[in-house]
Recover the amino acids of this structure.
């Protein structure tokens, strides 16, 4: 009887195993770093990944205001910049920022800017529409990796002005927080009216301190 059951069940198990092996696995999401680079990585690791496109930038160390702004965010004044980093088909300028104590990677800020060539209403609307589309496309991409959004009042490192006048969304995964921001730039016409002829979209990835990750668990 047992042998008969084994003969009947065996093929079904083998077929199920084969189907499971052939079925595509769910995409892996990396929430403990950025683009395959773990938080805490050295500047040399960033340079190795991006090659000649990575450039060390010490200018903020010689600018009191820039140095203070980075310090308030918990970053060293030294950064590595990559002029072109493409995410979801959108070109960004990337800034890799480091912890002043450990020297390891602590945050990555991606910035994409659009500017109308003139203040013609049609040209301005085109920029605003493209900016909104980029913002929504990025929101969908981030939500796919970080399915649990964070309410605006809970977001760590909430964006400063002028982003609070625009829009922002926040997410947090294991070891990483993400803030997506959008803001508009205004130009004044000689007839004293203004139009939002420019737009900036920023994505800020940052490491969550280990003690905060453990407390959340």
């Amino acid at each position: 009887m047992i042998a008969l059951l084994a003969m009947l069940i065996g093929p079904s198990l083998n077929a199920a195993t084969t189907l499971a092996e052939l079925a595509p696995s769910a995409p892996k999401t990396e929430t403990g770093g950025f683009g395959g680079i773990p938080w805490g990585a050295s500047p040399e690791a960033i340079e190795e990944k991006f090659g000649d496109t990575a450039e060390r930038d010490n200018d903020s160390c010689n600018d009191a205001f820039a140095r203070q702004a980075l310090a308030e965010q918990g970053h060293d004044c030294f950064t590595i910049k990559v002029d072109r980093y493409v995410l979801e088909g959108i070109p960004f300028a990337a800034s890799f920022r480091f912890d002043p104590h450990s020297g390891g990677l602590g945050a990555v800020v991606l910035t994409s800017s659009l500017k109308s060539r003139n203040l013609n209403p049609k040209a301005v609307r085109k920029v605003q529409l493209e900016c909104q589309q980029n913002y929504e496309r990025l929101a969908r991409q981030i939500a796919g990796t970080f399915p649990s959004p964070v309410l605006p009042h809970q977001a760590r490192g909430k964006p400063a002005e002028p982003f609070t006048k625009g829009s922002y969304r926040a997410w947090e995964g294991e070891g990483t927080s993400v803030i997506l921001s959008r803001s508009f730039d205004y130009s004044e016409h000689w007839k004293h009216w203004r139009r939002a002829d420019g737009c900036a979209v920023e994505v800020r990835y940052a490491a969550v301190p280990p003690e905060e990750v453990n407390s959340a668990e």
